[in-house]
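Narrative of accomplishments. A recurring question from our advisory board has been how the design workflow behaves on a single, concrete structure rather than in aggregate. To address it, we present the structure tokens for one chain from the evaluation set, followed by the sequence designed for it. No filtering or post-editing was applied between the two.
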């Protein structure tokens, strides 16, 4: 099945969107709910198929976790400064842009109250003012051995992606915030973001990923927990009279669909919602960095780097906080359970660090 399916929808006169779907390879075997894989964008309302290319990229619901089958990602002595599509690493460059210099992130918390423990109340602020575990994760992700896996990917000039993530700010938006049980279409997400740009609440930056979070049991995008756990996409919006490409991710509250979208029920940091969300957030940021428009890095089956390692965690350790809590990444002194990512070096593979 082709990796991309085109979709076009109008959010308002100011917004024109083409969206992209990511799926694992199709299977003919019956699937249990935990094994359900998204096959196309049909679960998302207001989307019609129009061809190969689109911009929805879905993080599929959890399948049966594979046995640890790859190295733990110890860094090779020969770190590549460039990497090309000719490298037989199991993933290919298709010529489009990547976020080579930096990946900036703005968190958009769309809810009537803080979604995560110690999360920001209504208003805007710098990323340094977000006291939630999601905020902590974003502040410490850049420069980490985990995010450095993305440095094995390059732009069209052969320059490797910098291991740099900047959490530049947040918008805690209570306006028309969806309640528990509500279904929010992708068009509604884009309309909300457009309102932020129009009002000047959100500042536009081409290297920024606007990550939208909602509270428990909000069906963000229309297929949350059944067809996907999160997704990234891009939209064309008119901002200050200029047509701009806006990168965004949809981050439904993973703990609402624990069997499909989480890998642990034990919180390492006092907030199971945030602790399970960061795994999906890391997945979408890694993919947006290496394939923001669906024209960058993906394999012959249409899988992006994080797709190739979805729900594979490699070797884990037990925390002294709880014998039942497993972790594989330490950021800023805190423990996290984050999936591996595909290394675009040598013969490739799912690794936890580089």
């Amino acid at each position: 099945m082709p990796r991309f399916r085109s979709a076009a929808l109008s959010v308002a006169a100011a917004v024109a969107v083409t969206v992209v779907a990511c799926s694992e390879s199709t299977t003919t075997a019956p699937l249990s709910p935990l094994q359900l894989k998204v096959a196309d964008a049909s679960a998302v309302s207001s989307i019609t198929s129009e061809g190969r290319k689109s911009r929805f990229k879905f993080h599929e619901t959890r399948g049966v976790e594979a046995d640890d089958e790859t190295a733990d990602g110890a860094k090779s002595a020969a770190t590549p400064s460039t990497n090309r599509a000719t490298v037989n690493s199991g993933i290919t460059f298709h010529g489009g842009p990547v976020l080579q210099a930096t990946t900036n992130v703005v968190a958009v918390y769309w809810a009537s109250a803080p979604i995560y423990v110690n999360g920001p109340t209504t208003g805007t602020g710098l990323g340094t003012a977000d006291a939630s575990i999601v905020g902590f994760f974003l502040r410490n992700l850049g420069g980490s051995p985990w995010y450095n896996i993305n440095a094995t990917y390059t732009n069209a000039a052969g320059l490797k992606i910098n291991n740099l993530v900047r959490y530049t700010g947040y918008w805690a938006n209570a306006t028309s915030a969806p309640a528990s049980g509500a279904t929010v279409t992708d068009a509604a997400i884009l309309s909300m973001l457009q309102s932020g740009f129009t009002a000047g609440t959100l500042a536009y930056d081409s290297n920024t990923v606007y990550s939208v979070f909602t509270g428990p049991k909000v069906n963000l995008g229309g297929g949350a927990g059944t067809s996907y756990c999160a997704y990234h996409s891009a939209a064309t919006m008119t901002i200050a009279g200029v047509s701009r490409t806006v990168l965004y991710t949809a981050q439904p509250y993973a703990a609402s669909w624990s069997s499909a979208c989480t890998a642990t029920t034990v919180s390492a940091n006092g907030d199971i919602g945030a602790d399970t969300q960061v795994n999906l957030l890391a997945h979408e940021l890694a993919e947006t960095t290496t394939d923001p428009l669906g024209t960058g890095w993906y394999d012959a089956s249409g899988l992006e780097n994080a797709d190739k390692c979805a729900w594979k965690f490699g070797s884990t350790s037990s925390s002294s906080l709880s014998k039942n809590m497993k972790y594989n990444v330490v950021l800023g002194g805190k423990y996290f359970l984050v999936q591996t990512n595909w290394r675009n070096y040598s013969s490739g593979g799912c690794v936890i660090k580089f």
